[in-house]
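LAB NOTEBOOK - FOLDING QUEUE
OPERATOR: T.R.
BATCH SIZE: 2
PURPOSE: Compare the predicted structure-token outputs for two unrelated chains run back to back under identical settings.
PRIORITY: normal
REVIEWER: second-year student, initials M.K.

ITEM 1
FIELD SEQUENCE / FIELD STRUCTURE:
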Amino acid sequence: METVSENRSFGGTQGVYRHASKATGGEMTFGLFLPDEAHFGPVPLLWYLSGLTCTHENAMVKAGAQAHAAAHGIALVFPDTSPRGEDVADDEAYDLGQGAGFYIDATEAPWAPHFKMESYILGDLTEALFDNFALDQEAQSITGHSMGGHGALTLAAKDGRFKSVSAFSPICNPTESDWGKKQFEAYLGSVHAGEGHDATCLVREGALEAPVLIDTGTDDQFGDLLKTEALAQALAERRMEATVRMQKGYDHSYFFVSTFIEDHIEFHAEALYS
């Protein structure tokens, strides 16, 4: 574990760290905010998964999450969105390759050797975090934005560790969206193979038991790609504990995320401390 930087923030520490990952076959960088309470013992952890083109840094700098996490004594982890490096496959398009890992494990060339983001999040990074920092492994929740909202919902459906899940403008039904079809064909070989990584499909199949909160802006410029209505219908059909809010006038940006991040952290705090 290499410490890249550490800065005092809202009584805690915002750090950036680098470590080797077996899953991605290279070095990965992540941000971690630890509240002051971590000096005295393990604290709950909220995962934040970022969207297309992002690194660990975007949400760490723009979401304004640290103040609200500090108020509840919650740690925040900001993983990168893909493997990186000269030997890692890439594409000229912004929505494929580096910066666009989609939180799945690729099976197809040239992506399979490094693009193992599901295994990285649920395996390597989890192990690194709990081996090196004062975090409570029994108190984890997850959130994310856009592609990261897709990741938060699908990983929560696959892994029962998360006490709650929320998302900002998530890609809700990627097998029916151009933000999904292209990536599943490239990474997994077919759109059909992506059904196991589609939140709407997973909910319809009975997965995802944690409480859900979703916020999407009515003026989101990518609204047609997100397919919020499909997931809302699936959640209603399951009669799940879920809140889906359409926020009037908001778009897809971090101005939107930072406006509602306090609501999401309070939502997770209730689950993490219950």
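ITEM 2
FIELD SEQUENCE / FIELD STRUCTURE:
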Amino acid sequence: MFNKDMGIDLGTANTLVYVRGKGIVINEPSVVAINKLTNEICAIGSEAYAMLGRTPITLTTIRPIRNGVISDFAMTEAMLGFFITSAFKKTFLNPKPKVVICVPSQVTEVEQYAVIKAATNAGAKEHGVYVVKEPMAAAIGCGMNVTEAGGNMIVDIGGGTTEVAIVSLGGVVYSKSIRDAGDSIDRNIISAVKKKFRLVIGETTAEKIKKELGCAYIDEKTKIRDMLIRGRDMLTGLPKEVTVTTEDVHDAIVDTISAISNSVKLTLEKTPPELSQDIIQNGIYLSGGGALIKGLDTLIEKNTGIKARVADDPLTCVARGTGMIIDDPYIAGKISMVH
């Protein structure tokens, strides 16, 4: 079905591009830096991410994807064009590829059309953009056999949304999408540090704290660690250092983690009985960057009574899933896609 073409995981936090025969060739932050005076784009991806919180008054950084959908069409189009062109340079592809691109499970038709239009305008082949639901791509990337009559459960925790879905026979049987995900965890941390330490920190610092100390479940076996962070003192306005611990971060993110765990339980309650039997046998798979938060699999397992597993390389599951759709005509012919 696809020849010398690409799959794109257009994420709130990162965009990954998979090219047939080459694997993942692009893995960059979904960030654009623009000059506010001229409206010209100054940087995209990693270069723009490095500017977050550090720009002069003439520059600003934006994330054109919010909660898994396009919030700034022009910037998304420019960003996609940059990544597609970069992929061409690395792989010498035909500059008009067919593209499989992922969207959250509960996007509207208007939002879906915006993704197709942005990809086409950015360099994809006319009428050559195929849209697949994000949890389906994640399930394929996890190695699940989604084409047969068996229930599989995937929890994909991205930057803007958490997608919980039951997949079977190439389609999504039931799904739940919530906006409690990686970005909301970062906001939780920023708010908690401000409240407890009277310290203002930025997005990049919050993300570092999340990666280093993020913990969803604490028991007697948990190793409590600490981290020195720097920010601006709210009272004096001067730079200040404080030490945060695993327990501080756990307390900060508990509401978001609980929302994710509860969405898993609610999805299980909506699952047909026959598929429930399969899920008990197959377990629950966690993918996306949020799956790397320590103890999340343990928490979900304790709350549901079903074995929860973190997928291999969870950050790239969705991109690898789009790649498998591109590489395997059988899978491409069996799953639900919008063209």
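REVIEWER COMMENT (ITEM 2): Residues 6-137+317-334 form a domain with the Nucleotidyltransferase; domain 5 fold (CATH 3.30.420.40).
FOLLOW-UP: none requested
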